[in-house]
Amino acid sequence: GALIAAARNNHGKIEAIVSPDGWPPEPQHHDVMVVGAGFAGSVMAERLASAGLKVLVVDRRPHIAGNAYDRRDAAGLLIHQYGPHIFHTNSPDVFDYLSRFTEWRPYEHRVLAQVGDQQVPMPINRTTLNLLYDAGLESEEDVEAFLAARAEPVDPIRTSADVVVSRVGRELYETFFRGYTRKQWGLDPSELDKSVTARVPTRADTDDRYFTDTYQAMPADGYTRMFERLLDHPNIELLLGVDYAQIRDAYPHDHLVFTGPIDEYFGHRYGKLPYRSLRFEHRTLPQPQVQRVATVNYPDEATPYTRITEYKHLTGETGPATSVTYEYPSAEGDPYYPIPRAENQALYKRYEALAIAEGDVTFVGRLATYRYYNMDQVVGQALATARRLVRRLATPMDG
Ligand code: FAD
Ligand code: UDP
After folding, report:
1. pTM
2. Where are the domains of the chain?
3. How close is the Cα of 212 to the center of ligand 2, in Å?
4. Gap from CA of 224 to ligand 2 centroid (Å)
5. Burial (Cβ within 10 Å: 0-12, 13-18, ≥19) of residue 314
6. Distance from C-alpha of 355 to C-alpha of 263, rounded to nearest angstrom
7. Level-2 CATH architecture, domain 4-68+220-273+338-398
8. pLDDT, tens digit, 9 for 90 and up, residues 262-306
């Protein structure tokens, strides 16, 4: 592939530039090479650069921001190339850190699930049950009694089926979780760790927000703009459209930060670690709005996609057209989700042992530590990892 270098225009914006032959003439020495310009790599790079280290960031994609990358589509609307990313966190440290690089647009995410010809709140709450069953539930006690009559106790709770069945019973489990999960993961919920469906609570009240975190907001100018500011540091150089394997030897460095898939780094020595992929279908429709809320989930197994997201709800943008993304789960394609189950964790642990033995390499992020982390968790992990690494690498003079 063509080598692409990043350059800054005079507004500090990063632009990808396809290089002339032989660029760059003489690769310079860097203290640290960072593989990946997503949350993990960019936060590591910013922290290391601010500690005085010279950092080279490389990403094989032709853009920064990793899976959080957003861009304007043909209709001029901001869309998320790799599926909808909604920021939420309970960590003031993570929120304050990112706030150095962006303003925020307050946004609380809401999701409806398509069940038959109805759209009902997801996570399941009192409204959901009243709409589905005409149950006339008036209080939290009513809901708890309704659910208790259906719940099938499971002990111990191990799988993603157990979590739901033990709380809401088999019928609601099948309506909302079984088909969606089988599509999303290509596995039955009984084959997945309980942590997967435990991400989605069941509520006795009428709170219809998807998240209840303290901080819920979208970067006011988008994720890509926030990453441009993160990476805009005199000690950071950026190479885009370049795979680590192509340049590992050409660019000397004392330390490596790797945020790609850990099994790939080790040449799949113990076999492939499973990651789930998605195919995104971006569409623009000639109408101002198409959905009542940002995301509609399709939990039935017959519908090939899992959800449709309409970006205007996230961005507050207006205009005559609207853009949406359909998510089609797939075994093939870019690695998006580590698949949480015991046998995969065991395989990851074997790679982790290799990683620990690799003295001059730090593994961080969702793919490199094989954790189903949200953005804020990756930022928290990167901040903690960077603190340790700076102590190790930075000389006192570097500040
Ligand atoms: P990534 O963003 O995957 O970045 C890794 C980068 O490394 C990539 O850009 C890749 O190209 C590059 N790379 C890998 N290997 C190499 C190599 N050999 N050479 C060069 N470059 C390499 N989180 C939330 O908090 N809220 C959400 O709503 C949310 N929605 C999501 C929706 C979807 C569909 C997906 C897939 C994820 C979602 N997430 C969400 C999770 C979020 O995307 C991740 O937590 C976050 O992006 C992880 O950052 P990262 O830097 O670890 O990995
Ligand atoms: N899930 C489900 N039905 C839903 C929503 C979620 O079965 O309507 C399950 C599914 O297994 C999904 C998991 O809960 O992968 C976590 O959902 P979340 O919305 O957190 O997934 P993500 O946004 O990370 O794709």
Report:
1. 0.95
2. 4-68+220-273+338-398, 124-199
3. 16
4. 25
5. buried
6. 10
7. 3-Layer(aba) Sandwich (3.40)
8. 999 999 999 999 999 999 999 999 999 999 999 999 999 999 999
